[in-house]
Each structure stands twice: as structure tokens, then as C-alpha cells.
Specification:
eight-stranded mixed sheet, globular, alpha/beta, 17% strand, 46% helix, two-stranded antiparallel ribbon
Length: 294
């Protein structure tokens, strides 16, 4: 039976307090939850000094700080916000923990089965943040998106808890399909924004066409693997001619707000997502590999 999620006073651990993890820790602490952040290196040192998430505007939210997850604490939630490529070293500790729920929240394309198998399907949930955030000199700079782009999680209870904490969230019943669709869509979009930011100009027709082909290939792979393209507007995008998608990318990279929003993604994360897609594809992904950042 699912455990109810209380309105406040939950014990929550956040592993990976970069921009995303720190945003959730800040909001959940402000909402009255008992939040512990698990960090490493310089981020751990700064958090131990402040005993709080500190924003660039001077706001503070008190948190507890640890260098590793306490596996004996019956956490109501352990929120894992490290990169997907960094999670393997945490799986055994998460499996050994007394946490009631473990939520993996990151960009990923591969099957989610290994996370369920490691932690137990009855307490494993997944999510993706609709947050643009970074850490600048130890301080959080964050923008929480809302409206038509809420954070998405696989559990209605946690969607409600996050929404109550000021992070608009919605539940989706098939997060594997959602995450695969998102990765296939967002990688070409972010690469487009990065190129425009780096060169100081919008994409040319050749660049836009190459990224449009990569986007189409990624969405086609989602279907090949037995997942659904979701949400429904993405299915419409997958049916548009390459020339139309290329024109949309060409236009988007001439909009300052698009370039500013999409140019902050880590290049190594985009490369890792392309590698994941290529490794799961029956015949590889030549169009995606052609735009893979080095």
C-alpha cells in the first residue's frame, strides 16, 4: 500500500545539490520539511559553512548537511538529482537505505528497469524537473517554470507535495516513455541553442537540417523501443517534414530567449544522452552521432 504524503514535516534527503537539487531543497525546506543535502567536495564545504541553501538574492533556507546518505534513516523521500551517468556508484547505498521512496530525477534515455531492480519497484519513482538553475560562487540562481511546463513525476503524491512547496508538478503514468521522448527532443534543441550562443549567430540551413534529422531519428527510436511518444504534441512534431523542423530550429536560434535558455546545458550530458540512444538503437543512430559534441 502507498504511504500517504503529509503536507509538511517530511524527512527528505537530496543527493546532488547542484542547481536542480538545491532548488528542490530550498523550496521543500521553506515548505516546512526536514531537508538534508548530501554533497561532495567544494559544494559540501560551502553547505557545511552556511547550513543553508543560499540564493544569489540573499535568501536562505536551512538544511542539514552530510557527506553521504545515512542508510539507517527512514527517509520519506530520497531525491537523487545527480547526472544519470553518475548514479551507478550510488545504487548499492540506495538499495541498502531505509528510505520509503527513492526518486531518480535526471535526463536519461536507457531503460529504467535497473533502477527499479536495484532499489525495489515498490519504492522507486522517477521525475524530471521543470527548473532552470545553476550554482554561482556557492549561491543558487534558479527559475522555476510553471504554467504549461510543470515538473513531471511518476507518483501523484509527490507531484502534490512538490506543488505545495512551490514547484508546480504533474504526474505521468509512463515516465520511461516521457523521459525517452524528452531526451530525443531536447538534445537537438539544446545543441541548437549552444551553437547559436557559441557562434553569435543563428543556425544556417545545413546545421538546422542536421539537427532536424537527429531529432527525427531520436523520436523514431522511441517508437522502435516500444515506448510511446509523449506528450501528444511531440507525436505531431515527429510527423513533420524534416524541412519544417529545420525551419523551426533556424527560427528559434534567432530568438534571444531561446538561446539564453538552451545554452546552459552541460555538453558532456548531451554527449552521454546521444551515446545512450546509440547504444540502445538496433542499427545505431548515425544522424545523432553526426551532431554529437566532442
Amino acid at each position: 500500500m502507498s504511504r500517504p504524503v503529509a503536507a509538511a514535516g517530511l524527512r527528505i534527503a537530496v543527493i546532488g545539490p547542484g542547481g536542480i537539487g538545491s532548488t528542490f531543497a530550498f523550496q521543500l525546506s521553506r515548505a516546512g520539511h526536514d531537508v538534508t543535502v548530501v554533497a561532495r567536495r567544494s559544494r559540501l564545504e560551502r553547505l557545511r559553512r552556511d547550513q543553508a541553501i543560499v540564493t544569489t538574492t540573499g535568501e536562505k533556507a536551512a538544511v542539514r548537511v552530510a557527506g553521504e546518505l545515512d542508510t539507517t534513516t527512514p527517509w520519506d523521500l530520497v531525491l537523487v538529482t545527480v547526472l544519470g551517468s553518475e548514479v551507478d556508484v550510488l545504487l548499492q547505498r540506495l538499495a541498502d537505505s531505509a528510505a520509503h521512496t527513492v526518486m531518480f530525477m535526471f535526463n536519461i534515455f536507457e531503460s529504467l528497469d535497473r533502477f527499479r531492480d536495484a532499489v525495489g519497484p515498490e519504492r522507486t519513482v522517477f521525475g524530471f524537473p521543470s527548473v532552470v538553475a545553476t550554482i554561482r560562487d556557492g549561491e543558487l540562481e534558479s527559475r522555476i517554470l510553471g504554467g504549461g511546463t510543470p515538473s513531471t513525476v511518476s507518483d501523484e503524491r509527490w507531484a502534490a507535495a512538490f506543488s505545495d512547496a512551490g514547484i508546480p508538478s504533474a504526474a505521468h503514468p509512463d515516465m520511461e516513455s516521457w523521459l525517452r521522448t524528452h531526451a530525443a527532443f531536447v538534445v537537438p534543441m539544446l545543441l541548437a541553442g549552444q551553437s547559436a550562443h557559441r557562434t553569435g549567430r543563428g543556425l544556417d540551413r545545413r546545421e538546422a537540417t542536421a539537427l532536424a534529422r537527429a531529432l527525427r531519428e531520436g523520436l523514431r527510436l522511441v517508437r522502435q523501443l516500444g515506448s510511446s511518444i509523449t506528450p501528444s504534441p511531440m507525436a505531431v512534431l515527429s510527423r513533420l517534414p524534416i524541412s519544417v523542423v529545420a525551419a523551426l530550429l533556424w527560427t528559434a536560434t534567432r530568438l534571444p530567449v531561446f538561446v539564453r535558455t538552451t545554452s546552459v546545458a552541460p555538453t558532456d550530458e548531451l554527449a552521454a544522452l546521444i551515446d545512450e540512444m546509440n547504444s540502445t538503437a538496433p542499427h545505431g543512430t548515425p544522424a545523432l552521432l553526426a551532431v554529437r559534441p566532442e
